[in-house]
């Protein structure tokens, strides 16, 4: 399995365009998968430089209904004519962020695309094939980011705190490995890992994704004691972590201090072979 980071907040070099967002290309034994599409067409430009043909992608997955993960959907549909796009049934809702200086700002997906014939709406556990499983509806019990409180969903005239029913996660199986891939882990990486292990009745070998320890609009990070407690929890697991995007550079440095070789960071242009 080869996982190439097409879009992330940082870049391995100036050759690639980095943006606040996320997109992975995943080459498995049987599939070419895109997990998230970034905020715009940047993933297309970077894919070309990395010798990845987007027209060959046969499965696309959007982790949740925020534009930094699904803003490139229109560009993908125009540049690929065969892949189905798997999106949680709640992901085309009205999602906003609350920014003190600017008020409420729409951060959802382009709702004009929701009826495209290639979009498959998912819910809870959704098996694409024997090696690819999506799951959502994660109980949010432990280690939740405080920056989630500024993320809202609109229902009627009301703006409510988002419950992230629209967030889904990916489990891939290849050879003897179980790989978990998440977008922002809004439901909490510990809770997501626990549900994934429960579904499989096996350990997650590799976990990849953002941990939402940094608020994008203000760059404010979670309290250090929170990050350290999270790090100690992850350290006890027999799992290798690769993080990115909304984790933040400072939180990552704290986690790296605790987890050492058990955690690394993926930037735009990173190529990970599993």
From TrEMBL:
Organism for this UniProt entry: Clostridium thermobutyricum
Entry-linked SUPFAM superfamilies: Metallo-hydrolase/oxidoreductase (SSF56281)
Q: Boundaries of each Metallo-beta-lactamase domain copy?
A: 20-210
Q: Which SMART domains match?
A: Lactamase_B
Pfam families under this entry? Answer: Lactamase_B
Q: Name one GO molecular function term.
A: transferase activity
CDD domains with a match to the protein in the record? DHPS-like_MBL-fold
Gene3D superfamilies the record matches: Ribonuclease Z/Hydroxyacylglutathione hydrolase-like (3.60.15.10)
Official protein name in the record: Metallo-beta-lactamase domain-containing protein
